[in-house]
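Good morning N.,

You mentioned wanting to compare the apo and holo forms, so I went ahead and generated the holo version with iron/sulfur cluster. This is what I fed in:
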Amino acid sequence: MAITRREFLQYSAATGAGVFLGVFDLKPIVAYAHTNPPKWASEALSVGCYCSGGCGIIVGKQYLSGPGYAGDYVTYVQGNPDSPINKGALCSKCTSSAQLSSIVSNDAGKRIPNPGRLTEVKYRAAGATDWTTISWATALSQIAAKVKATRDATFTEIGDGTPDPSGLTVNRCTGIGCLGGSSLNNEPAYLISKLMRSLGVVYLETQARN
Ligand code: SF4
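and this is what came out, ligand included:
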């Protein structure tokens, strides 16, 4: 049964209130959980992917099989209590990151590989309405070619006009902007800023938290 986000919040609030008021007895559920622990194919230690906070996570995989798929998929993520950063806590983003790999299907009623996960490069040409699949080599070549063409067209060596009439050497590229993602920590943020400044890019910003 599919439920809306609003219904989910209503059910959650009602359930939480019921637990708080002692209406629901959770002992059978807890007992079941203890006698039927999840069976992980393997567990691995990793780091949260959604921000530069760097929270330590424990990633559990399970073997899933069905029509068109069979293999180990991430089904579970929890905070690593040994991490000095988060000490076992996780915010909702990384707690739900197992869904990048697998989800519980409304139709099948069981955990399946996430059908929305992109595993290849999708390209939509200017003016096109449909996406096509291209290789990583093609995508990277196209990006490099567009960066070069834009830089060649918008690079200013001497400030002899708008916006800089100073006559000084400026070596700036005003046709490209770079916005770093929130998951960047020190090292990738450093490398990106080095790359952009070597191109002369001056519109450079990042959402990184540290
Ligand atoms: S998104 Fe949340 S859980 Fe994930 S690393 Fe950042 S703060 Fe930690």
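Residues 48, 50-51, 53, 55, 86, 90-91, 93-94 surround iron/sulfur cluster (CB under 6 Å).

Happy to go through it together on a call whenever suits you.

Best,
F.
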